[in-house]
Design goal:
By secondary structure, the chain is mainly alpha-helical. 78% of the residues lie in helices and 0% in strands.
Length: 156
């Protein structure tokens, strides 16, 4: 019963986060969204791809019993810092950066909870929710970014 309540709370928080994010991002947008494909945008795409792959590999090693939860959490924390230090100029990539940092942070929290033998379900749920939001932002921006020379397919 407690687990169901935690999942419900996680879903509610993810919904509030999504609605807040959608409302504030629309308020800032005046006119059509102008995409860019600067050097920093390309660097962000490569950095995000590399860190997503690294955390995915560490996660798989954890599932296979070859890595400890603390190691996966530390790697995810590093990924959040590295991706957070990027500075994409494209509005969609900047939103994606924020969502990915949140995703890595929630995944780190989940692994820290697993280290303490506690339920990590809510943090994992939030991490996947943020990943889905990032996917949606990138999917919508992909055609415009591709026309400018930025391939975001590795992040999808």
């Amino acid at each position: 019963m407690r687990r169901i309540a935690l999942y419900g709370l996680g879903l509610l928080l993810a919904s509030v986060l999504a609605l807040t994010y959608a409302a504030t991002s629309r308020a800032k947008t005046v006119g059509p969204l102008r995409h860019t494909c600067s050097v920093t945008d390309r660097a962000f795409i490569e950095t995000a791809r590399t860190n997503m792959t690294a955390v995915e590999l560490w996660g798989q090693q954890y599932i296979d019993g070859e890595a400890a939860a603390s190691e996966v959490g530390a790697e995810s924390g590093r990924a959040a810092k590295i991706v957070g230090a990027t500075a994409p100029t494209d509005p969609s990539l900047a939103r994606t950066r924020t969502l990915l940092v949140g995703m890595f942070t929630e995944y780190r929290r989940a692994m820290e909870l697993r280290t303490k033998h506690r339920d990590a379900g809510a943090s994992i749920f939030r991490a996947y929710g943020l990943a889905n939001f990032a996917h949606d932002v990138l999917e919508q921006a992909e055609p415009a970014l591709a026309r400018r020379g930025c391939d975001v397919a590795p992040l999808l």
